[in-house]
Amino acid sequence: MPRTTNGSSATKTMGVLTVGALVAVTAYTVALGSNGWLWFGWVFLGLITLGMVATRSA
């Protein structure tokens, strides 16, 4: 069965990357203290992921 390239795998990859980044930023915060730039980066990554999900379902 041929695999279609409709962006589904890219969206899943971004979701996994976003969750992995959340785990990494949380671990960093617990171990070394909060860093606003890391949280800002994670929020930005999350917004990009939500945008990809929204455009895929539209």
Characterize the structure shown.
The structure is a single chain. By secondary structure, this protein is an all-alpha fold. The chain has two helices and no strands. The protein has helices at 8-32, 36-57. α1 runs antiparallel to α2. The chain is elongated. The mean pLDDT is 88.
Characteristic terms for this protein:
elongated; 58 residues; 2 helices
Q: What is the structure about, briefly put?
A:
81% of the residues lie in helices and 0% in strands. With 58 residues, the chain is mainly alpha-helical.
Topology:
Elements: H1 8-32, H2 36-57
Helix pairs in contact: 1-2
User: Structural class given helices, strands, pairing?
Assistant: mainly alpha
Annotation field: number of helices:
2
Largest sheet: none
Q: Whole-Å distance between the termini?
A: 26 Å
Helical residue percent?
over 70%
Average per-residue pLDDT, rounded, comes to 88
β content, as a range?
Answer: under 5%
Element order, helices and strands?
Answer: HH
Overall morphology: elongated
The rounded Rg comes to 14 Å
Q: State the low-pLDDT regions, or none.
A: none
Number of strands: 0
